[in-house]
Specification:
The chain is mainly alpha-helical. It folds into two domains: 68 residues, no CATH class; 79 residues. The protein contains four helices and no strands. Helix 1 runs antiparallel to helix 2. The radius of gyration is 24 Å and the shape is flat. The model has no long low-confidence stretch (mean pLDDT 80).
């Protein structure tokens, strides 16, 4: 049996029951629409399951990282909750945004480049070490076969 990544335990604590309760609460919140972003809901629903297997855990979070790596630099709707001055405040905010857009787009695009490079580096390291581990495991198996162990 494969050893889990980490274990929850203390005297008098039923860890399996706690995990079931957390998963049930996450499901309840998803049904209520608490998690607006599908990635958050998916991560919350499968997080505890993925913690049981280190390979799946890393793969799952690398996929989450790939999905969320880039900052959304598209324009957004400017809204105002205060009713009395809403039209004036919206025009003011749009004017400010039009002045700042150039600078924020430059920062966001630079941040996206850095984020993309970091994800690529992490994926490269993961692939490199996975291949190295596979080679070493094969070598160990071969040596065990030769020594009869």
């Amino acid at each position: 049996m494969e050893k889990p990544l980490f274990e929850i335990g203390a005297a008098g604590v039923d860890a399996d029951r706690l995990v079931r309760e957390i998963q049930a609460e996450a499901d309840r919140k998803m049904e209520q629409g608490v998690y607006a972003d599908a990635r958050i809901a998916r991560a919350e629903r499968t997080n505890l399951v993925n913690l049981r297997n280190e390979e799946q855990f890393l793969g799952f979070y690398l996929q989450c990282l790939r999905d969320a790596v880039f900052v959304d630099i598209s324009d957004f709707e400017i809204r105002e909750r205060r009713r009395h001055l809403a039209p004036l405040l919206i025009r003011l905010k749009k004017a400010i945004w039009s002045l700042l857009k150039f600078y924020t787009y430059r920062l966001w695009s630079q941040q996206n480049q850095v984020n993309g490079l970091l994800v690529t580096a992490i994926e490269g390291l993961d692939e490199k070490y996975a291949a190295k581990i596979k080679t070493l495991e094969a070598r160990i198996a071969e040596l065990e076969k030769k020594t009869g162990g």
